[in-house]
Amino acid sequence: MSDRRRLTGLHVDLLARARRSARVRAYVLTGGRTRTQQVLLVETFVSARPGVEPASALGPEAGAIFAFCRSRRTVAEIANALRLPLGVVRVLLGDLERKGLILIHPDADSVPRRELLERVLRGLSDPRTV
Amino acid sequence: MDFPTRVPSDSAGAGVEAAQLHPGALSAKIVVAGGFGVGKTTLVGSVSEIPVVGTEAMMTEISGPVDDTRKIPGKHATTVAMDFGRITIDPGLALYLFGTPGQDRFWFLWDDLVRGALAAIVLADTRRLADCFPAVNYFEARGDVPFLVAVNLFDGMRTHTADAVREALDLPASIPLVLCDARQPKSVRATLRAVIKHALDTLPA
After folding, report:
1. In whole angstroms, what is the distance from residue A18 CA to residue B69 CA?
2. pTM for this entry
3. What b-and-e string marks burial along B127-136, b requiring 16 or more CB atoms within 10 Å of the CB?
4. Lowest mean pLDDT segment, chosen from A16-30, A78-92, B30-44
5. Residue B91: closest CA among chain A residues belongs to which residue?
6. For B166, which of A38, A79, A122, B51 is 20 to 30 Å away at the CA?
7. Which domain of life is it from (chain A) (predicted)?
8. The domain A28-129 is classified under which CATH number: 1.10.3470, 1.10.10, 1.10.3210, 2.60.40?
9. Chain B interface, mutation test: which of A42, A84, A103, A116, most B Cβ atoms within 10 Å?
């Protein structure tokens, strides 16, 4: 048995523990909500709806996210720039979306996987993208 | 070592708008995993159009007061910056490369980073091969993300044969193993193409 195989059991334990500890308590920031309906992958694009302004004052974090999304951003970019945990960013983006303030762009799963992979392969082979 | 100059975290990929991308462009991602300091940030930085944050260098700097932040529930422990780069595939599609954090205490981010990934690259350093075991185990156990192992040729020399590495990793024949120089854009792009081809090969008919 290789070293890697021997380590697998330990690793699976560690992973399970890490996942449990990742179930962080809901924040005051998000008003206790921890789930959103939208699919928000780390690479999902979001952007403020052009010409739309909030009807009432947003919280400081939601306001910062809304302002930052004047340009199209990825979820990861928002978390990095505003130093907010991913889970919080997701919940607040969900709120902003329900208020009609931002657009959550469709992710690449809207394209059949084979077509998508072939497109990526073509792009990676194209010297112009170097 | 091989870390690129760290971009101040304030810029964290911010302010770089995807100029060539259409407004309705889609985004997809490939995940780059492997042990701490194996060259993930270097690999992503070799081909990225945007500055890469280089979070591993940053994490090293902040690793001192970890015990203190752990006492504060949630907040500090989860605000870990993500390492990513971007390649514009065509005006309607951006490919993001996300590096997984190489330190055990950031395991909780892996599922988040990997969800929806087209494929994954596990970067290995033959001088510390065991460091990539957790990543290989992770993707093998998941079974839903096509991956390959890329051996990073740090010094440009092939010090181990691919077969020896494959044997040491006990890698099934179905998982490709390639050699890669994370510093060389051409080599990294070849590795990206290899993992996408592998993903195509493993698609259910």
Report:
1. 16
2. 0.81
3. eebebbbbbb
4. A16-30
5. A123
6. A122
7. Bacteria
8. 1.10.10
9. A42
